[in-house]
């Protein structure tokens, strides 16, 4: 009767040396793990069978990884049969096959040797490798070999993904809920469609991130800049510091000024004027030193009209979008300092335009019937 046993594996040994060697085997360690998991032990034959199956599976996986498919004509390597099949059925590959067949036929007619034919093949492979160095094998089946020009995104196109909406309101709702995109101080936007058109041109034509502007990396396609904005969380307008000045032409914060009077025509944007009277030859309006304008009596039927403000064209859409913003917890993003910057920029532009007109009048450049006293 043997005196040396292993309770875990349920086996007996003739002497202690064999028992000690058994404790160091993988079979014993495997049964110890099964014992901890409250599972019955396995025999040595079953354990060896499991080891062989695992080795065979590992070898099969290694062979599948090392197994690659090559296209000698295009000088490309593929790791899966699907990508290789798509490449072989692609339009560009078939065109290269046709071109190669024609060239070989021409060289055969000219009586060239087989060595020259092989050299010509190698030259074709080098040219294809250089011309397609920037292409990836994964999207080879979608490549038709034609160039395309970047186009501006429409106001119904999402700025961050290929989604297309039926209307402007649906597009804004999609960008807000899917990409957390908000337009800062939407209630003060003067030209809503113009702002979205500008953003669409910035992303579609310029391939510029809305948040990085031109300070970040350069992108060469609309898909690349859209992926960057989604991955980096840049699905927002940069509205901090001096970046707000880029969108100053699309906003009007006149109603937020403390000294704003809606009854006045020019509000608080009036600038200092000369104490001289000026008449506009086109509109026949007389500008007083106070800034008020007096129209000609022949045009009184025009001045009697009561026209709505320009912003009212998109007021319904803006109100609906603002309601969606507030429902999602948005309460505005711009502060008094930024509004003052926009106000200063608009005032500066207005003063610059007035100075340009004054200089042009003094230089006699507005009268087309006068000839400039230069270049005789």
TrEMBL record:
Biased composition range(s): Acidic residues: 137-147
Xref: InterPro entries: Matrin/U1-like-C_Znf_C2H2 (IPR003604), ZN622/Rei1/Reh1_Znf-C2H2 (IPR041661), Znf622/Rei1/Reh1 (IPR040025), Znf_C2H2_jaz (IPR022755), Znf_C2H2_sf (IPR036236), Znf_C2H2_type (IPR013087)
Record's subcellular location: Cytoplasm
Single GO MF annotation: nucleic acid binding
Biased composition (Basic and acidic residues): 94-126
GO biological process assignments: ribosomal large subunit biogenesis
Positions of region (Disordered): 84-147
Keywords annotated in UniProt: Cytoplasm, Metal-binding, Repeat, Ribosome biogenesis, Zinc, Zinc-finger
Name of the protein: C2H2-type domain-containing protein
Organism in which the protein naturally occurs: Pocillopora meandrina
């Amino acid at each position: 009767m043997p005196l040396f046993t292993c309770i875990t594996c349920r086996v007996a040994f003739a002497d202690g040396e064999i028992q000690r060697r058994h404790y160091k085997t993988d079979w014993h360690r495997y049964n110890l793990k099964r014992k901890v998991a409250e599972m019955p032990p396995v025999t040595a034959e079953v354990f060896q069978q499991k080891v062989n199956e695992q080795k065979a599976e590992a070898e099969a996986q290694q062979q599948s990884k090392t197994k690659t498919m090559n296209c000698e004509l295009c000088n490309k390597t593929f790791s899966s049969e699907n990508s290789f099949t798509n490449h072989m059925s692609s339009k560009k590959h078939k065109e290269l096959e046709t071109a190669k067949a024609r060239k070989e036929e021409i060289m055969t007619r000219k009586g060239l040797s087989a060595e020259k034919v092989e050299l010509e093949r190698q030259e074709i492979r080098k040219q294809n490798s250089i011309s397609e160095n920037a292409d990836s094998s994964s999207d080879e089946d979608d490549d038709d070999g034609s160039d395309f020009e970047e186009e501006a995104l429409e106001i119904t196109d999402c700025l961050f993904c290929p989604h297309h909406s039926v209307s402007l309101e649906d597009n804004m709702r999609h960008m807000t809920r899917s990409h957390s995109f908000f337009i800062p101080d939407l209630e003060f936007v003067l030209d809503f469609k113009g702002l979205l058109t500008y953003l669409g041109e910035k992303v579609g034509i310029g391939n510029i991130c809305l948040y990085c502007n031109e300070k970040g990396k350069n992108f060469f396609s609309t898909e690349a800049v859209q992926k960057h904005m989604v991955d980096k969380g840049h699905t927002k307008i940069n509205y901090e510091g001096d970046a707000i000045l880029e969108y100053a032409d699309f906003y009007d914060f006149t109603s937020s000024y403390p000294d704003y009077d809606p009854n006045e025509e020019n509000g608080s944007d009036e600038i200092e004027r000369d104490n001289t009277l000026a008449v506009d030859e086109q509109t026949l309006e007389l500008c007083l030193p106070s800034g008020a304008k007096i129209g000609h009596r022949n045009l009184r039927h025009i001045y009697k009209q009561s026209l709505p403000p320009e912003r009212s064209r998109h007021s319904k859409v803006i109100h609906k979008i603002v309601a969606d913003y507030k429902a999602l917890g948005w309460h505005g993003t711009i502060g008094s300092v930024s509004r003052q910057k926009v106000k200063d920029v608009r005032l500066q532009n207005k003063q610059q335009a007035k100075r340009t007109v004054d200089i042009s009048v003094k230089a006699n450049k507005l009268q087309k019937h006068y000839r400039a006293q230069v270049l005789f």
